Amino acid sequence: MGYQIENSGDAITGCALVLSAGFLWGTVGTARVFAPADVSPQALGVFRLSVAGGCIVGAGGAPR
Q: Is 63 left (phi over 0), alpha (psi -120 to 50) or beta?
């Protein structure tokens, strides 16, 4: 009893996306520390979401 993976490339892509999300989640404090003092938390959040969204679309994880 288990799950069958039709395409191992899909599994690798999924794992890479999850690991990337974890990496980006773990860099929140680091990004805030190294950002200029006059950057608001909202602007930093918008930037991070834009970069993450671009990575997801680039990896082919966008809805079809």
A: beta
Q: Residue 57 is which amino acid?
A: V
Amino acid at 64: R
Q: What is the pLDDT of residue 2?
A: 65
What does the pLDDT read at residue 41?
A: 84
pLDDT tier at 52 (50, 70, 90 boundaries)? confident
Contacts of 54 (CB under 8 A, 6+ apart): none
Q: Output the CA angle 35-19-25, nearest 5 degrees.
A: 30
The contacts of residue 42 (CB under 8 Å, 6+ apart) are none
Residue type, 35: A
